[in-house]
Write a sequence for this structure.
């Protein structure tokens, strides 16, 4: 990257993913980056965002215009339900030719709507699918890219030492992979909750786990189940929003989406409990969730 460049990287939405990418980039790159988050607009929530950005070397912008003034590559990392809104609100401030890397877990229809907004503003849209949790890999988390700006974005991401793979020129190709994969990944998490919470309440959880292990000895069911519950406890609200986008994806394909809609409800329910699942084993997490149900 050019040594004399000014804050040419912008991060819109500075939550877990934005902070993970910035941590991986390091302070030298972050010195050329700025970030904006809606929480910066409220005094009560601004301080943690400002502190996190400053600690990593990013400049926390006062507004969207300031964040995007010198932007050549913009990472949009908001929640799935805000992706199109973020594109619309940022488009008037987007420099001509800037890359808009839409890293949100959205249906292809949502990505295409955002792409139209960015194209009208003179930007280059990139459909980005983040294919695994951002921890522990940080900026090396695998990404899939498609859309009109994907080829140019690959070059940018290489310079940022990120792991990206080109899928195609069509907006929606990358997001389709992510959405359809989530049917299985988030679906297994919801099935874990429904199965093992019921088993625990019935007093047969040890027997059910033992049966599962006997049927599929290649999987460590207790550790996987503990991990699945932790994902729902910590990130259920965000994952529920993603699964509603998966419903849109399936509906767009003309396929039933009843199971995926129910998966979204489970993630919403557990995520909305406000529990922190980082500490504790399967037994502890199951007990805490049952106490709230």
């Amino acid at each position: 990257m050019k040594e004399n460049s000014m804050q040419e990287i912008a991060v819109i939405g500075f939550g877990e993913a934005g902070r993970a990418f910035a941590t991986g980039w390091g302070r030298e790159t972050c010195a050329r980056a700025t970030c904006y988050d809606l929480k910066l607009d409220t005094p009560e929530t601004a301080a943690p965002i400002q502190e996190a950005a400053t600690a990593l070397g990013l400049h926390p912008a006062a507004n969207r215009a300031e964040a995007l003034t010198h932007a050549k590559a913009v990472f949009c990392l908001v929640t799935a339900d805000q992706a199109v809104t973020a594109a619309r609100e940022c488009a008037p401030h987007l420099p001509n030719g800037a890359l808009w890397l839409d890293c949100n877990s959205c249906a292809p229809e949502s990505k295409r709507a955002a792409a139209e907004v960015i194209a009208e503003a003179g930007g280059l849209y990139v459909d980005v699918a983040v294919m695994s949790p951002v921890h522990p890999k940080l900026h090396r988390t695998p990404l899939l890219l498609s859309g009109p700006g994907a080829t140019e974005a690959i070059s940018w991401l290489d310079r940022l030492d990120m792991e990206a793979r080109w899928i195609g020129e069509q907006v929606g190709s990358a997001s389709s992979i992510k959405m359809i994969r989530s049917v299985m990944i988030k679906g297994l998490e919801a099935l874990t909750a429904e199965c093992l919470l019921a088993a625990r309440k019935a007093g047969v959880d040890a027997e059910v786990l033992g049966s599962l292990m006997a049927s599929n000895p290649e999987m460590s069911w207790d550790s996987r189940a503990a991990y699945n519950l932790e994902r729902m406890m910590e990130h259920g609200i965000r994952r529920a929003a993603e699964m509603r986008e998966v419903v849109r994806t399936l509906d767009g394909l003309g396929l039933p989406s009843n199971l995926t809609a129910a998966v979204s409800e489970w993630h919403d329910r557990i995520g909305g409990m406000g529990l922190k699942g980082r500490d504790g084993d399967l037994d502890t997490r199951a007990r805490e969730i049952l106490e709230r149900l």
Remarks:
- Strands lie at 9-12, 33-36, 59-60, 73-76, 99-102, 124-130, 143-146, 164-168.
- The chain has a mean pLDDT of 95.
